[in-house]
Amino acid sequence: MKHQIILLGKDITSVYHGIKEFGPDHIHLLYTEETKDIETPMYPLLPASIRCSRYKAEPYDGNNVIDVCRQIHSEHQGEFAYNLSEGTKVMAFAAFIVAKETDSEAFYLTQHGEIVHLNTFEFHPLHSILNNEEILGLSGNKLTHYHDAKELSIGEVKASLQIKKFIEQYPQEHARIQKFFSIFCKRQLTRLPNSKLFANNLRFKQRNGSLLISLGEYVLLRLNQSYATMLYFEGRWWETLVANEVCNWSEQRPQSPEVWQSVIFQTNERNPQTKNEIDVLLNNQQKLIFLECKSGNVTQNDIYKIDAVRETYGGDISQAVLVSYYPIEKSLRDKCKDLQIHLFAPNYTGERSDFLKKMPAWLDKLADELQL
Fold it and tell me: Diameter of the chain by CA atoms?
């Protein structure tokens, strides 16, 4: 039987990953008063066949930790390994003494996806990776819905590109229609009329999700897809184009990181006002990157919401990115910097047309920075 003795600390990601990497039959968790319930979110993710035992230890009493570890060896037979990635330094040193005297494997997992074998100090990449559901589950979050962005259809991308072209060619007409949607429809598709004629003969028609925008007899935009009104009026066209670009980037990276779109979490009961939807979610070597896509004007309140989403659903190992179609004014750029929110936005309006093409190189730089 394979046993794994694990020290608990403030982070359970390395605890769970060590279990996934080595597949023990029986895990022995050493907790302190401060960490006695820290591992709770991990249990639903573990195979039902794994046995679990818990032992209370003193964080700064090395002799106590030694006694606990020796007790585990005396009560169980089999192959032992120690995960010393967490816990206090005193706990790690004490546990390592017992690992040495029992000729047991002892290891440490780094934040860069590597394992350090403490007996020899050799290190190598981990064979296993954590997926989005595991990472989010370890932080205690529950998913309601998400869409695998790598399953985006060619039709969705083409329709989004047509919308982008319309906006850039007819900015005044676009602004007028969006103003109507904001003021008279409260940005709710259910309130959108089937047809609306404006004073200058600008008209839009929508039926069963399809969309037609015309100026007199001249057609400005025609989309027959059932999701066209959603793409255009809710700004999902920009989210779709961003998700598609992130997917293209992902395909060129090692292990092709997961990319999710329209991720909805179960509402946080402690803070029901927190935005519970993320436009694009990227798993960059087990560091989550939340991308908020804004196709319209960005306000300071939008930035605070992005920060709240990161803190609520991602925690310390996550990063937030604001991806704006339009340039951002300096005060808001400074606010992003203050809150450590990464910003991807054109510097001036004329740059926006081709700016998204810069995203792969920008993501390369961000991903490398996160591994430093």
Answer: 87
